[in-house]
Fold these 4 entries.
Entry 1:
Amino acid sequence: MTALFLRDLKLSIRAGGGALIGVLFFLTVVAVIPFGVGPDLKLLSRIGPAIVWIGALLAALLGLDRLFQAERDDGSLDLMLTRETPLVLTVLVKCCAHWTATSLPLVIASPLLGLFMNMDETAIGATALTLLVGSPAITFIGAVGAAVAVALPRGGLLVSILVLPLTIPVLIFGVSATYAAVEDPVPFLPPFLILTALTLFFAVIGPAAAALALRNASD
């Protein structure tokens, strides 16, 4: 499993620019918002956490179609299906490697992008924390879409269409928890715990559903 994690980590970084493409796209999405809404610093500060979360969500969707594509192209997907190691565990390891290579850099870059939106220290810290907790759920959900579309010739767009609606609850509670940390009357813990529960839920359901879809695609 360690060798598989390291292999997938290298492939995720090399394929299509990996983390660099995601961070650049994240930067582009956040950077153009001030040009659209104008120089109102209070407005930017108010909508900043939501914009950073939306940018991170869209950037995380970029490379999901390649989660199983390399194995499909070189034929190693059939070997994955016939190994003694449970396929669910293999998918889980691949998801962790993909998150480390593509989504973790977005979490690291989010404080810098928060400065572009005139966010204060509390909002920047809360946004980074909620992204750290919530972004794995996006990867686990995306694994299901990637497994469903792995046999299709142009599955990249289909993965985004399938995954985006399912990630809306993660986006809602991630942004809600961030705003709750900034606005004193609103408690931070309830939406943050729900966000954590969503990640744990999809960490169980996502790999299992992706493994089932991969088996059906190979038949």
Note: Residues 87-116 form the longest helix (30 residues).
Entry 2:
Amino acid sequence: MAGRGTPATALLDKQKVAYALHAYEHDPRHESYGLEAAEALGIAPERVFKTLVAEVDGKLAVGVVPVTGQLDLKALAAAVGGKKAKMADVAAAERATGYVAGGISPLGQKKRLPVAVDASAEGFETVYCSAGRRGLEVEIAPEDLVRLTQAVVAPISA
């Protein structure tokens, strides 16, 4: 897959973690990046996780939740040891992660941010999340995702 490398795949290769890349043609008119990925790849949407950047007590943090749900901001704040959370400004999220919105991966971010992965991920052998580019998903064991992002696992999806 020449030309498919991203900071996320570079991290996975460096750590010698088993993963599979799944590319699809991104349609900019689609309303949901995650649901688009599930449809395009023919997989259950609850196995596809979106990466959302929030501001918790003035600092950025990442929530990784199924595309079928919403990020519970209060639960994210509690999971990362904070009190109050709100969605981060898109430009701030892009600057901190090094990725563009719709292609933000929890892996290989420019700045290491606290990460919480929704507990539902543990119910699957593998989950899908952005590989760092719109139209590119990485399939990975949830325990590898948690380990590589140093995430806490908590019920953060509403």
Note: Residues 19-154 form a domain with the YbaK protein fold (CATH 3.90.960.10).
Entry 3:
Amino acid sequence: MEKKLTQHPINLIKVVLFGPESSGKTTLSRHLARHYNTVWAPEFAREYLQNKWNNERKTCEKEDLLPIATGQMELENSLAKKADKILICDTDLLETKVYSEEFYGGFVDDKLNEAANKNEYDLYLLTYIDTPWEEDDLRDRPDERLEMFNAFENALKKHNKNYILLKGDKETRLKTATKAIDKILLEKKDLYSFSDSLQDLDMHFLHQNSGDFSTNFEY
């Protein structure tokens, strides 16, 4: 598998927001990261495609999908090192694969397909389309929201992913999501924590320099 599309090994709970456009993924990503005092990995495609639109007045093309996937994994792997036990991912490569299939007649780059199938996450939060459609430069197919939602759910089922469906207002979604994540937190042990690693580093520094500090107080 393409090395740039591979997850770096780290003992974290990885949660993916998964679903069609304008279904509340980014909002919930922020809320979950705040709730668990951790970081979240935004959708690389948003910035990439917005820049393309601003500079070329072009939307996503087939050739953009692999660079988008590579950028997403670089972002995820980088932010994983700064997470505290949980990493919230606004998207993953399986989502990119679904878009590729739906927008380009079933086409999926072989490297993207392999990585999307092999990268692993603890929980997928499938966001339903009971949120208002918010138009912008990049979003399209507002009349095909149900068809896109079905494509995303079918992908989760096809690949045997652990997922729950999120419906309702922001508070309801957050409550449902945290209940599922808390259950995983109880089951997984020795999770990586960036905050703990910083504290360990500080303690190591103090221990290493304790002798130097004592000499400063000689009379």
Note: Residues 213-219 have pLDDT under 50 and may be disordered.
Entry 4:
Amino acid sequence: MSKPKIAIVVGSTRAARFADVPTQWIAKIAKTHADIDVEVVDLRDFPLPFFDEVASSAWAPSQNEVAQRWQKKVAEFDGFIFTAAEYNHGPTAVLKNAIDYAANEWNKKPAGFVGYGSVGGSRAVEQLRLHAVELQMAPVKSAVHIAWGDFLAVRQGEKKLEDIEHLNQAAAALVNDVAWWAKVLKAARAADAIDAEAKAA
């Protein structure tokens, strides 16, 4: 079986976003993990409108071309790490919208989070974990929370994320968890597909 493919999803599209910094950092760490392949997926490349389909794609095919392209992209992966800025105690609208524009493509795959902002993006991450469960994902316990002091130090150029050891340790734990669950769940999905083919024969 091929190695699980993990997406690092950039969860902000603002021109002045901080998201590129943690994305590059966590992607570099993830790419050192021998058991997974890693790709950065930028929501800027999928300019989705606010959700305006007749129903979730779980129930009816999406009509929007970008939505169709997004769903195909999500389907390529066996697990996800999302960067999660916290706005007003929650995740960014663009990330929640992107999550809503796919359905079955998320199922039975692990999700991990790199939060930043107020209290390390913890409230945004907790909300995203609830969304992940509803989509039959497996949100992992380990997470990265770039707290306000570290966030400001990096934003102002006083430090780099790789200079902050507790964040490096959290990132390593996160990647290890996502890699483990991606491997296990990929095998389980493959077994389900074999069973389904046998029953249909």
Note: The domain at 5-200 is CATH 3.40.50.360 (Rossmann fold).
